[in-house]
C-alpha cells in the first residue's frame, strides 16, 4: 500500500471558484500560508455569473484589481443593473459609488484575475486536486486530497469550504442543507 505523503499549510481552501480565490488572495496578503485545492485540472471556461455589482467593483478597486477586471469586461450601455444579462434600469445615485453600473464580466474571466492575484500574493493553487476525506482534531484538520501526484494528506489549522452548492466539505462533515421549508 502506498504511504500517503503528509504536508502542512495554515489554511486549506477547498474550491477555486471566485469565493475561494478571493479568500486565498486575502489570506496570503495577510501573511497566512494558504493552499487552494481545486478538482478541475484547468478552468472550465464556463461562466455562470455574468456581472458584478458596484460594491464588488469597490472591493476590487481597493485591491488594485479593478483595471485588470475592466480590461476583461464586456462593453455595454450604462444601465445600472442587469438580470441574466438583460439590462435593468436602476437609479444608483443614492449609492454614492464611483462604480454605479458595476461591470458585465463573465465569471471565468474574473476568476483569472483573482487566481493571478492570489498566486502573486503567495497562495498555492493545486489544480486537479480533489478533497475526498477529512478528519478534524485539536490542532486542525487532516484533509485527504487526490491529485496528479497521487494521494496526499494536507494538515491545516483551518479548512474553508468554498466548494460550491454541492459542497463535498458539507457532506463529509454532515452539515445539513435545509431547502427553505425546514427539510
Ligand atoms: C445560471 C446562473 C447565473 C448566475 N449569474 C450570476 C451573475 O450574473 N452574477 C453573480 O455574481 N453570480 C451569478 N451566479 C452565481 C455565481 O455563479 C455563484 O455565486 C458563484 O459561482 C459561487 O462561487 P463559489 O466560488 O462559491 O462556488 P463555485 O463557483 O461553484 O466554485 C466551487 C469550486 O469548487 C470546486 N470543487 C467542488 N468540489 C470539490 C472538491 N471535492 N475538491 C476540490 N474542489 C472542489 C469546483 O470544481 C469549483 O471550481 C449565477 C449562477 C448561476 C447558476
Can you offer a commentary on this structure?
With 183 residues, the protein is of the alpha/beta class. It has 2 domains: 1-45 and 108-183, 3-Layer(bba) Sandwich (FAD/NAD(P)-binding domain), CATH 3.50.50; 50-105, no CATH class. It is built from 5 helices and 10 strands; from the N terminus they run βαββααβββαββββα. Bound molecules: flavin-adenine dinucleotide. Residues 14-20, 37-40, 48-52, 107, 130-131, 162-164, 168 line the site of flavin-adenine dinucleotide. Flavin-adenine dinucleotide is lined by residues 14-20, 37-40, 48-52, 107, 130-131, 162-164, 168.
Short description:
The chain has 2 domains: 121 residues, FAD/NAD(P)-binding domain, CATH 3.50.50; 56 residues, no CATH class. The protein contains 5 helices and 10 strands, in the order E-H-E-E-H-H-E-E-E-H-E-E-E-E-H. The model has no long low-confidence stretch (mean pLDDT 91).
Secondary structure: elements and pairs:
Elements: E1 5-14, H1 18-29, E2 34-38, E3 51-52, H2 54-62, H3 66-71, E4 82-83, E5 86-87, E6 103-104, H4 107-121, E7 124-127, E8 130-137, E9 140-147, E10 150-161, H5 168-173
Helix pairs in contact: 1-4
The chain binds flavin-adenine dinucleotide.
Amino acid at each position: 500500500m502506498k504511504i500517503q505523503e503528509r504536508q502542512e499549510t495554515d489554511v486549506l481552501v477547498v474550491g477555486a471558484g471566485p469565493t475561494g480565490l478571493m479568500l486565498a488572495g486575502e489570506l496570503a496578503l495577510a501573511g497566512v500560508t494558504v493552499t487552494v485545492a481545486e478538482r478541475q485540472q484547468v478552468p472550465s471556461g464556463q461562466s455562470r455569473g455574468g456581472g458584478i455589482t458596484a460594491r464588488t467593483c469597490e472591493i476590487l478597486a481597493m485591491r488594485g484589481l479593478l483595471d485588470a477586471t475592466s480590461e476583461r469586461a464586456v462593453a455595454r450601455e450604462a444601465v445600472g443593473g442587469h438580470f441574466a444579462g438583460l439590462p435593468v434600469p436602476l437609479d444608483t445615485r443614492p449609492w454614492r459609488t464611483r462604480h454605479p453600473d458595476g461591470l458585465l464580466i463573465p465569471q471565468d474571466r474574473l476568476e483569472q484575475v483573482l487566481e493571478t492575484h492570489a498566486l502573486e500574493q503567495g497562495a498555492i493553487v493545486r489544480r486537479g486536486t480533489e478533497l475526498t476525506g477529512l478528519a478534524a482534531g485539536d490542532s486542525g484538520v487532516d484533509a485527504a486530497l487526490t491529485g496528479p501526484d497521487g494521494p496526499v494528506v494536507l494538515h491545516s489549522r483551518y479548512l474553508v469550504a468554498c466548494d460550491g452548492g454541492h459542497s463535498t466539505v458539507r457532506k463529509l462533515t454532515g452539515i445539513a442543507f435545509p431547502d427553505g421549508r425546514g427539510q
